């Protein structure tokens, strides 16, 4: 099927469990659960949480625990990792953890896997991450698949629970390496175009061209993640987006901070070089009222022919963030 409209595809949520300025992790977790419950009502398909470490503005460090919390407070939404940074963990531990989740919440758990550390080099060392871990990622994915397979029941090392539970595995990526891997293993592919837009089109082409059917997946399946900041009109959305821009500017400059309250859209808070770097990083960010959002997202969907759209929305005010996802949910229904 050709995807040209936002109502043609499934939409999902990527929650970074962002801690806003003046808030704390407890507030963040409460808001994450509230967002998941509302997203379920609005017809969203998945709710994924990302693994990051040593960042004062992100609270999703114990990703598996948070997935369990969100899954326990919802009933139909698929909950998963976007993703687990596999080189930080032994494959057996991941198999056991997700086997436990999938036992508690059958047919609702997704296991998205990435190869990056999700942090800085010092924290990676504290996580006991091996310096060659990224190179071992393909082998570790296959080891994890083995533990989760029915065929491992006679293995000397088994994941219980986990074995034979048919937990969907996704390969996440921001480069072409991940595209080749997802294609060769016949796994669904999720691209992080919300912060790494440069290789999106090349990676999708590589994945589709090289895809080999597997027991899990017969045809290529692609998610692209983008940033969406929607409001009742363009001005309100542009004001909300100033929080998001400051957050990403902090990543670029190395001055990471918690999510700040929005300022007026025309307030000057970065120099031209910073703005150019920021615009390059957030190329796939869609900001505006419903009509503008719909038009721009449908152009993106038509060009990429993705199967599913995943949305991250770094918005300071919780009610405003809920409203942004509500607007997108209404557009997805074709209203």
From TrEMBL:
<feature type="domain" description="Luciferase-like">
    <location>
        <begin position="13"/>
        <end position="300"/>
    </location>
</feature>
<dbReference type="InterPro" id="IPR036661">
    <property type="entry name" value="Luciferase-like_sf"/>
</dbReference>
<protein>
    <recommendedName>
        <fullName>Luciferase-like monooxygenase</fullName>
    </recommendedName>
</protein>
<dbReference type="InterPro" id="IPR050766">
    <property type="entry name" value="Bact_Lucif_Oxidored"/>
</dbReference>
<dbReference type="GO" id="GO:0016705">
    <property type="term" value="F:oxidoreductase activity, acting on paired donors, with incorporation or reduction of molecular oxygen"/>
</dbReference>
<dbReference type="GO" id="GO:0005829">
    <property type="term" value="C:cytosol"/>
</dbReference>
<comment type="similarity">
    <text>To bacterial alkanal monooxygenase alpha and beta chains.</text>
</comment>
<dbReference type="InterPro" id="IPR019949">
    <property type="entry name" value="CmoO-like"/>
</dbReference>
<dbReference type="InterPro" id="IPR011251">
    <property type="entry name" value="Luciferase-like_dom"/>
</dbReference>
<dbReference type="Pfam" id="PF00296">
    <property type="entry name" value="Bac_luciferase"/>
</dbReference>
């Amino acid at each position: 099927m050709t995807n040209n409209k936002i109502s043609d595809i499934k939409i999902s949520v990527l929650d970074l469990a962002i801690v806003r300025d003046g808030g704390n992790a407890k507030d963040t977790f409460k808001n994450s659960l509230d967002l998941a419950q509302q997203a379920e009502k609005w017809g969203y398909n998945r709710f994924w949480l990302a693994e990051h470490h040593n960042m004062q503005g992100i609270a999703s460090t114990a990703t598996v625990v948070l997935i369990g919390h969100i899954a326990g407070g919802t009933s139909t939404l698929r909950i998963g990792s976007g993703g687990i940074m596999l080189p930080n963990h032994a494959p057996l531990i991941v198999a056991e953890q997700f086997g436990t989740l999938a036992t508690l919440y059958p047919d609702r758990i997704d296991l998205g896997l990435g190869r990056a550390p999700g942090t800085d080099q010092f924290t990676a060392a504290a996580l006991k991450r091996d310096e060659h871990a990224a190179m071992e990622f393909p082998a570790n994915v296959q080891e994890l698949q083995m533990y989760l397979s029915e065929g491992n029941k006679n293995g000397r090392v088994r994941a219980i629970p986990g074995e034979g539970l048919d937990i969907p595995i996704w390969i996440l990526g921001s480069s072409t390496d991940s595209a080749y891997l997802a294609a060769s293993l016949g796994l669904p592919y999720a691209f992080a175009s919300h912060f790494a837009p440069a290789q999106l089109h090349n990676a999708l082409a590589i994945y589709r061209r090289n895809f080999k059917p597997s027991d899990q997946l017969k045809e290529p399946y692609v998610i692209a993640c983008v940033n969406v900041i929607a409001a009742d009109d363009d001005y309100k959305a542009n004001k909300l987006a100033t929080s998001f821009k400051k957050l990403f500017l902090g990543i670029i400059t190395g001055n990471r901070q918690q999510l700040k309250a929005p300022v007026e859209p025309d307030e000057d808070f970065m120099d031209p070089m910073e703005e150019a770097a920021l615009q390059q990083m957030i190329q796939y960010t869609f900001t505006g009222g419903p009509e503008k959002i719909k038009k721009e997202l449908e152009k993106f969907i038509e060009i990429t022919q993705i199967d599913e759209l995943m949305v991250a929305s770094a918005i300071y005010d919780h009610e405003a963030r809920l409203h942004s996802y509500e607007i997108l949910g209404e557009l997805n229904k074709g209203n």
